[in-house]
Design a protein that fits this description.
single chain; alpha+beta; seven-stranded antiparallel beta sheet; four-stranded mixed beta sheet; 16 helices; 17 strands; binds flavin-adenine dinucleotide
Length: about 450
């Protein structure tokens, strides 16, 4: 694939980042050319691994001058095919930007490189008796840069918001190599356009994130966790509303269904939590400075429709979480899934969960639908197994239903390659035209992640 780009460019990239950090050839580039699900597989002209912002700037300028497209990549855990070189692009892997500065305790902030993984950031914050507000299952690989580029939400969104809410400063490089830096971290700062917010969710199309200054939250050392089983989706969703009203320290409320739990337990050989299977399950978690078990117990007492309860004591938190956290892994074992991550308005959520499986089956009788997600945010992950990777008939059916119900076709994973044909379901022509103007202003030659977000 190196022949897709001029040899002079490869030489220039080697000069910029060092020979060892330019990978060429299918064998070396394979791991960077396929997404986490295996649904999106491409080929890279080369993989370039810069070790500093200055090197990122030199690489981008060289690619810009040679009109060669670049796909920024962090941990490659994105679920919409946005980090994969589909048409022989250069992959710009940011994982070497792994610097972590000491926690600024006075400000409650920390500055980290774009390539720092979420778990490294979490460990660093914990060592300073603080915490980072966003958490997600891919924490060991997902990077700060990728999480900003996708505006990741995750398990604690209901308490702390998503990545946009945590970013208080940003450094990024434009397509032509210009470095932008606004890292002051001031809480109040109305000095014109807030471009760091614009880059949150921009999916690598506007600039490459190299460093971020992030807000930290108090470390809640005490945790209480319960797994509740319900006789129906409606009672589970209703219960979450009640728990939210009653538990001030609620930090997560995650839904999954009976067939999903069965799949996790069978595929991953985990012991079942209860002797019988139920229609729906919710994991609820409270975290606080003092033990929130009484608060959680009070919040779940007298809930309607509860069939079974498991409360985690120390040492069992991970097991109870794993029933929800390991859904994606278990589903992947069935073959590359179609992943549709959607939000529904509160009043339409139950109807959606109860009917969408039939909608999928009516389009493709061999397809299976798996539903789970961040129910307190109205965010459901619709996973479909069975259809071939390029068969988008069931995707289309689901996203049309979501839009008709007033929902969003992407809650937190982004649009990527997977959903760009359906952006119009949520965005007007005028909005899409404005997106294109922004893209053109910042990346006039369209070299930054050209396959994602905007419809062809
Ligand atoms: C098991 C599992 C659980 C998950 N759970 C959640 C969840 O709860 N919530 C959630 O929101 N997501 C979740 N995800 C999706 C994924 O982890 C997130 O989208 C994450 O933010 C991606 O980070 P990454 O570093 O892997 O980015 P990548 O996958 O490498 O890239 C994602 C996008 O960001 C761009 N990008 C990457 N780095 C940069 C950079 N430095 N500058 C500019 N653009 C860049 C890429 O071009 C691409 O478009 C999950 C994924 C898995 C596999």
């Amino acid at each position: 694939m190196a022949d897709l780009v001029p040899t002079e460019l490869i030489d220039e990239l080697r000069l910029a980042v060092g020979v060892d950090h330019v990978l060429v050839g299918d064998d070396l580039c394979a791991g960077f050319s396929r997404d986490w699900t295996g649904r999106f597989i491409g080929r890279a002209a080369a993989v370039v691994r810069p070790g500093s912002t200055a090197e990122v700037a030199t690489v981008l300028k060289a690619c810009h001058d040679a009109s060669v497209a670049v796909v920024p990549q962090g941990g490659n855990t994105g679920l919409v095919g946005g980090s994969v070189p589909l048409n022989g692009e250069v992959v710009l892997s940011l994982t070497r930007l792994a610097n972590i500065e000491p926690v600024d305790r006075a400000a409650g902030q920390v500055t980290v490189g774009a390539g720092v993984t979420l778990s490294a950031l979490q460990r660093h914050a914990t060592a300073a008796a603080m915490a980072f507000g966003v958490d997600l299952g891919a924490r060991d690989s997902a990077t700060v840069g990728g999480m900003i580029a996708t505006n990741a939400g995750g398990l604690r969104f209901l308490r702390y918001g998503g990545m946009r809410e945590q970013v208080v400063g940003l450094e990024a490089v434009l397509a032509d190599g210009t470095v932008l830096s606004h890292m002051g971290g001031l809480a109040k700062d109305n000095t014109g356009y807030h471009w760091p917010s614009l880059l949150c969710g921009s999916e690598g199309t506007l600039a490459v994130v190299t460093q971020a200054r992030l807000k930290l939250v108090p470390a809640h050392t005490e945790q209480a966790l319960a797994l509740l089983a319900f006789d129906s989706v409606a009672t589970a969703v209703d219960a979450v509303r009640h728990v939210r009203e009653r538990a001030q320290n609620l930090s997560a409320a995650e839904l999954f269904l009976g067939d999903g739990l069965e799949l996790v337990c069978t595929q991953l050989q985990i012991a079942r939590p209860f002797s019988t299977t139920h229609a729906a399950y919710v994991v609820v978690e409270c975290t606080a400075l003092s033990d929130p078990i009484d608060e959680l117990a009070g919040a779940v007492a007298d809930l309607h429709g509860v069939m079974d309860v498991a409360v985690a004591d120390r040492g069992r938190f991970d097991l109870l979480w794993s029933y929800r956290d390991r859904h994606a892994e278990a589903i992947n074992l069935l073959g590359p899934p179609h992943k549709l991550d959607v939000t529904l308005p509160a009043g339409r959520l139950v109807e959606f969960i109860e009917t969408i499986g039939q909608v999928v089956s009516s389009v493709d009788p061999s397809a299976r639908t798996w539903l789970f997600g961040h129910v307190a945010d109205g965010n459901i992950h619709v996973n479909i197994t069975g259809p071939a990777p390029h068969d988008e008939a069931t995707d289309e059916a689901v996203l049309q239903v979501v839009a008709a119900l007033g929902g969003s076709i992407s809650a937190e994973h982004g649009i990527g390659t997977a959903k760009k044909h359906w952006l119009h379901l949520n965005r007007s022509d005028a909005e899409i035209a404005m997106f294109r103007s922004l893209k053109h202003a910042l990346d006039p030659t369209d070299i930054l992640n050209p396959n994602v977000l905007l419809p062809s």
